[in-house]
Amino acid sequence: MSDPNPIEVRKVAEADFPTEYGHFRIYGFAGRRGDYTEDSVAVAMGDLQAPEPLLVRIHSQCLTGDVFHSLRCDCRAQLELALETIGAEGRGMVIYEAKEGRGIGLLNKLRAYELQDAGADTVEANEQLGFEADLRGYEMPGAILHSFGIKAVRLMTNNPEKIAAMENVGIQVTERVPCNAVRSRHSARYLKTKKKRFGHLLEL
């Protein structure tokens, strides 16, 4: 069933974006639904209007991993794997959502780290702070894909909820491309929680 009040997206910027993984275009999008607003970035390579399903990674912002190279999670490794894979194929898109800490925000994520140090897993930590285990939604990535006229994707994910979310907004997922990045001993418990508590499709 279609959302009677879908999020509306507007492209506010587009620029050339050379990276170590290849030459991309970078796009800035502003989303709004009523009083709710959300900003996202997409980096894309190749012909987005080609008939073949587009390789897409939906990545949630992780300052600690993406910027500071934290080993508590596999976020940076997954982002780099996605960019490297798209660069090798010559076509694809990464949609980067501002959803730090599964949507609880940066400072609350650091508070959750404290609770994890005391023994809580990532789900328990979020819940002890008064949040749901995962506050993220994926309407914005779906709206961004629709704005490009993209109807079918090969989704690079281990998260079944992302697949369901794309199908719910009318984006056909023709293939799930695993996103199994290099892991460390520091991220072992985090990954086990992803698999056990969220049903992520991981081989541990």
TrEMBL record:
* Residues that, per the record, bind GTP: R57, I58, H59, S60, Q61, Q78, E100, G101, R102, T122, T157, K162
EC category name: hydrolase
Alphabetical keyword list: GTP-binding, Hydrolase, Metal-binding, Nucleotide-binding, Riboflavin biosynthesis, Zinc
The Gene Ontology terms for molecular function here are: 3,4-dihydroxy-2-butanone-4-phosphate synthase activity; GTP binding; GTP cyclohydrolase II activity; zinc ion binding
The note describing how and how many cofactors are bound reads:
Binds 1 zinc ion per subunit.
Biological processes annotated in GO: riboflavin biosynthetic process
State which Enzyme Commission number(s) the record gives: 3.5.4.25
**What pathway is this protein said to act in by its record?**
Cofactor biosynthesis; riboflavin biosynthesis; 5-amino-6-(D-ribitylamino)uracil from GTP: step 1/4
- Which cofactors does it use? Zn(2+)
User: Cross-referenced Pfam families, in alphabetical order?
Assistant: GTP_cyclohydro2
Q: Name one GO cellular component term.
A: cytosol
Q: Which residues bind Zn(2+)?
A: C62, C73, C75
Q: Which residues participate directly in catalysis?
A: D134 (proton acceptor), R136 (nucleophile)
Domain GTP cyclohydrolase II: start-end pairs: 11-178
Q: Sum up the protein's function in the record's words.
A: Catalyzes the conversion of GTP to 2,5-diamino-6-ribosylamino-4(3H)-pyrimidinone 5'-phosphate (DARP), formate and pyrophosphate.
Alphabetized PANTHER family for the sequence: 3,4-DIHYDROXY-2-BUTANONE 4-PHOSPHATE SYNTHASE (PTHR21327:SF18), GTP CYCLOHYDROLASE II-RELATED (PTHR21327)
Protein's name in the database: GTP cyclohydrolase-2
The organism encoding this protein is: Paludibaculum fermentans
Q: Which gene carries the instructions for this protein?
A: ribA
